[in-house]
Amino acid sequence: MLEKVIEENRQGEAYAPFAADPNTYSKKFYIESYGCQMNFSDSEIVASILHEEGFGATGNYTEADLVLINTCSIREKAEQTVRNRLKTFRQIKEDRPGMLIGVLGCMAERLKAKFLEEEKLVDIVV
Fold it and tell me: Which of 45, 57, 77, 122 has a CA that sits 20 to 30 A from residue 106's CA?
């Protein structure tokens, strides 16, 4: 049974549902959520889908095969926070080229071209 390990009032926390035996998964994912309660709910849905596809959650992004940030772009500070996190993840990816980095939510929709093509911060925009 999966347990929820996030309080929705803590922006930027990783959603990490841990299964009884984390060694049963061949790939690991890490999700951070920023913004409204809907984003946290959406992250739970994404985590559930990834779990069904054989991914296990991790609370440590440095060991993840897939790193996702789910965010909205209501405030400029949130946008800068997300950009800084994406740069951090990109640095980890230099040592782990197989890692995929993705961004979800309305910020992703608005800045898709910049994230993918200009700044090359992410591999996936949803």
Answer: 57
